[in-house]
Amino acid sequence: MKLNNKTILITGASSGIGAELAIQLAAKGNRLVLLARRCELLLELVQQLAPHAHEHLYFHCDVSDPDQVKDICDWITKSEVTIDVLILNAGFNGGFSVKEIDLDLFRQHVEVNFFGAVYFIKYLVPEMIRRKSGLIAVNGSLAGYRGMPKAAAYSAAKGALMNFIDSIRIDLYKYNIHCTLISPGFVKTPITDRVEFYMPFMMSVDKATHIIVRGLERAQTEIRFPWPMVCAAQVGRLLPNRFYAWLMQSSRR
Ligand SMILES: NC(=O)c1ccc[n+]([C@@H]2O[C@H](COP(=O)([O-])OP(=O)(O)OC[C@H]3O[C@@H](n4cnc5c(N)ncnc54)[C@H](OP(=O)(O)O)[C@@H]3O)[C@@H](O)[C@H]2O)c1
Fold it and tell me: Which terminus of the chain has a lower count of CB atoms within 10 Å, N or C?
């Protein structure tokens, strides 16, 4: 799908990969619908996207709140804005301690990283089904391939998202709706700025986003990068459970 002259909805567009996707996709001549909780950042971003700034829409939205998502999707549908591409990118990683599991924090990981994508698909995909066209991309993570140390909530939510998109790809196949899983390694954004452990093969956000945009245009089923991390994640999947646990437990003390 040539990403030009399309209407593209991006969640989590206020910083990092989402904001850079907005910049690169606007430069290609697409109309954007941008969502996040920090509306002031969205406004600043939209003003940067000038001279076509007036064409873009932005909304305050907490993607973990189904009512807020429904209201925005209802507005979009009633306004006859046709969404060609959905990029469900909002996410966060707030950490995890097995010694003292914080249930609210755990639930928040699942609500933002997993349900934050499911809600948009519930409300916007019926219209794509009617049109028999569309592209849905969810931002997962290579951390969803297998359990990661001190990240059970994030890994579990991203793993669920991977299986979810894999399943709906089958259901949407006959409606000509493409489903893409984005599986980044480490990308330099505010999420990784907060992390203290060593992150190998860190990629700049503009390079990572360039790879994502190219993969979306090719309608790839999965866009994963950088390749050394992809190889490590693939090998990790094949390792016996006990050996994998032993190997990983020493990596983040
Ligand atoms: N950076 C990496 O190394 C990496 C690796 C693998 C996967 N990813 C995934 O890439 C995606 C983007 O992350 P990033 O690296 O660009 O980090 P980021 O700069 O922290 O961006 C996260 C975005 O998600 C939004 N968000 C968080 N909670 C939200 C909520 N409840 N409702 C609405 N929006 C919410 C934030 O907006 P507001 O705070 O304004 O709401 C922000 O725009 C995430 O899904 C992340 O898991 C990142």
Answer: C
Query: 16 in ligand 1 pocket by Cβ < 6 Å?
Result: yes
Counting Cα atoms < 13 Å in the Cβ hemisphere of 114 gives: 19
pTM value? 0.97
Probe ligand 1: pick from 92, 120, 230, max atoms within 8 Å of CB? 92
- Of the pLDDT bands very low, low, confident and very high (cuts 50, 70, 90), residue 250 is confident
- Where residue 177 sits, what CATH number does that domain have? 3.40.50.720
The number of the ligand 1 atom at minimal distance from the alpha carbon of 187 is 3
Percent of the chain whose predicted confidence (pLDDT) is above 90: 90
Q: What is the DSSP letter of 55?
A: G
For residues 190 and 42, what is the distance between their CA atoms, to the nearest angstrom?
Answer: 16
Amino acid sitting at position 39: C
Q: Is 154 a catalytic residue?
A: yes
Nearest CA to ligand 1 atom 30: 62
Number of domains forming the structure of the chain: 1
Contact 113, 99 (CB under 8 A): no
Provide the domain limits for residue 177. 7-249
**To the nearest whole percent, how much of the chain has pLDDT over 70?**
98
Which atom of ligand 1 approaches the CA of 199 most closely? Answer: 3
Instruction: Take atom 42 of ligand 1 and give the residue whose Cα is closest.
Output: 12
